[in-house]
From TrEMBL:
It comes from the Eukaryota. Residues 155-256 form the Fe2OG dioxygenase domain. It holds the Pfam family DIOX_N. Keywords: Dioxygenase, Ethylene biosynthesis, Iron, Metal-binding, Oxidoreductase, Vitamin C. GO terms for molecular function: 1-aminocyclopropane-1-carboxylate oxidase activity; dioxygenase activity; L-ascorbic acid binding; metal ion binding. Pathway: Alkene biosynthesis; ethylene biosynthesis via S-adenosyl-L-methionine; ethylene from S-adenosyl-L-methionine: step 2/2. This is aminocyclopropanecarboxylate oxidase. It comes from Arabidopsis thaliana x Arabidopsis arenosa. GO terms for biological process: cellular response to fatty acid; ethylene biosynthetic process. Its EC number is 1.14.17.4.
Length: 320
């Protein structure tokens, strides 16, 4: 309970006033010690957020709920007798904004819903880039450094996962989403303001990310841990299922472009870095099979790949 009170809630509008320094310090502390923080007064219009919430809930009822129930039946989850550890109790669909939008390829969205998501995506992209610059400032990196790293040759990847976590008759038997860290860069989450469920692991305890109306929850993915050489943390989180209520969550992932070269920033590396350097897409290939495993072996595997690549002669010698 006490933990929740300390959960970092940051009033972004204070960056424009005399509390700027304190606010920057709160962001830095959250990035180092929580890997998460919750933004209020972030500048996103509340009526846009309300419309998106309404349309996401309507869309679930109209186009997703039936499919979710069929999935439960086909996987034998309608009767939960024992703990299930290889499936998540969630109903999701994805939209990509960057490098190319696929908004018009997604079935069953009303035009109003598409336009609202387009507007929301653009505003979140701008917010993500502003936040990256705040991180740069706190890290002593030049303005634009992180954005440039994420750019690669084709610009960042930016996508939104729209989820509903429907009520579950036996919450102790299955998670809404199993514990994991996020692979990418910065995650911006618009979560239900009534139904809770998201928890992060802090000092060995699970801490609730408190629902707060019109807030945007931010968390850092594995790439920011690598680039900051471990100064900032990608933190394990999960979603619990609930007996009552349907939890909406809209998570937008601002990630590096597929060919972006990721490595610890030189100015943040002392004698030696424990983090690898790699091309982002190679990390994603590894992550795809290991999402619900700890991040450390992923970093190790990328280090080993890097060492193997270093051993390879540039011009291959013919061996046949
Ligand atoms: C994720 C995630 C949290 C949520 O999709 O990676 O952690 O509340 N989602 O949906
Ligand atoms: Ni996540």
């Amino acid at each position: 309970m006490e933990m929740n009170i300390k959960f970092p809630v940051i009033d972004l509008s204070k960056l424009n006033g005399e509390e700027r320094d304190q606010t920057m310090a709160l962001i830095d502390d959250a990035c180092q010690n929580w890997g998460f923080f919750e933004l209020v007064n972030h500048g996103l219009p509340y009526d846009l957020m309300d419309n998106i919430e309404r349309m996401t809930k309507e869309h679930y009822k109209k186009h997703m709920e039936q499919k979710f129930k069929e999935m439960l039946r086909s996987k034998g989850l309608d009767t939960l007798e024992t703990e299930v550890e290889d499936v998540d109790w969630e109903s999701t669909f994805y939209l990509r904004h960057l490098p190319q939008s696929n908004l018009y390829d997604i079935p069953d969205m009303s035009n109003e819903y598409r336009l609202a998501m387009k507007d929301f995506g653009k505003r979140l992209e701008i917010l993500a880039e502003e936040l990256l610059d705040l991180l740069c400032e706190n890290l002593g990196l030049e303005k634009g450094y992180l954005k440039k790293v994420f750019h690669g040759t084709t610009g960042p990847t930016f996508a939104t996962k729209l989820s509903n976590y429907p009520p579950c008759p036996k919450p102790e038997m299955i998670k809404g989403l199993r514990a994991h860290t996020d692979a990418g860069g910065l995650i911006l989450l618009f979560q239900d303001d009534k139904v809770s469920g998201l928890q992060l692991l802090k000092d060995g305890d699970w801490v609730d990310v408190p629902p707060l109306k019109h807030s945007i929850v931010i968390n850092l993915g594995d790439q920011l841990e690598v680039i900051t050489n471990g100064k900032y943390k990608s933190v394990v989180h999960r979603v619990m299922t609930q007996k009552e209520g349907n939890r909406m969550s809209i998570a937008s992932f601002y990630n590096p472009g597929s060919d972006a070269e990721i490595s610890p920033a030189t100015s943040l590396v002392g004698k030696d870095s424990k983090y690898p350097s790699f091309v982002f897409d190679d990390y994603m290939k590894l992550y795809a099979g290991l999402k619900f495993q700890p991040k450390e072996p992923r970093f190790e595997a990328m280090k080993n790949a890097e060492a193997a690549a270093d051993l390879n002669p540039v011009a291959a010698v013919e061996t046949f």
